[in-house]
Write a structure and sequence with these properties.
With 116 residues, the chain is of the alpha+beta class. The protein has a single domain, classed as 2-Layer Sandwich (GMP Synthetase, Chain A, domain 3). The chain has 3 helices and 3 strands; from the N terminus they run αββαβα. It has helices at 3-23, 57-81, 97-115; strands at 33-40, 46-53, 89-94. A hairpin with a 5-residue loop joins strand 1 and strand 2. The longest helix is centred in the middle third of the chain and has 25 residues, at 57-81. The relative contact order is 0.17.
């Protein structure tokens, strides 16, 4: 499979999952979740779905649990939406890049503010 095709599949999975989470998943633990990216394996058998959400550790743990419980349902819904022979198994991972970016930005602001 070509890299461009794998990337298109990842983008389509991200769009469809975002729609499914918004409209179909009724788990109250899964509130405002933002899907930041999807990485599909070369053989299209697995997909890492990176997400962010606001909340403390307890809420984030509940979101992670809710997403894992919904993974089978989401996989079956993707099977109906995508015209693929193989729909990847979904693995949800919390994306820390947003928090890390905010932390680094705060450090830069403090360093620049300390120079004056």
């Amino acid at each position: 499979m070509t890299k461009a095709r794998t990337e298109r599949i990842a983008q389509q999975i991200q769009r469809d999952l975002a729609d499914l989470l918004r409209t179909e998943v009724k788990d109250p633990r899964i509130g405002m979740v933002t899907l930041t990216s999807v990485e599909v394996s070369r053989d299209h058998s697995h997909a890492k779905v990176y997400y962010t959400a606001l909340g403390d550790e307890k809420e984030l743990g509940g979101i992670a649990e809710g997403l894992q419980r919904a993974a089978g349902f989401l996989h079956s819904q993707l099977f109906h939406r995508l015209k693929l022979r193989i729909v990847p198994q979904l693995h949800f991972e919390y994306d820390t890049s947003v928090e890390r970016g905010a932390y680094l930005s705060r450090l830069i602001d403090e360093a620049v503010g300390g120079d004056s």
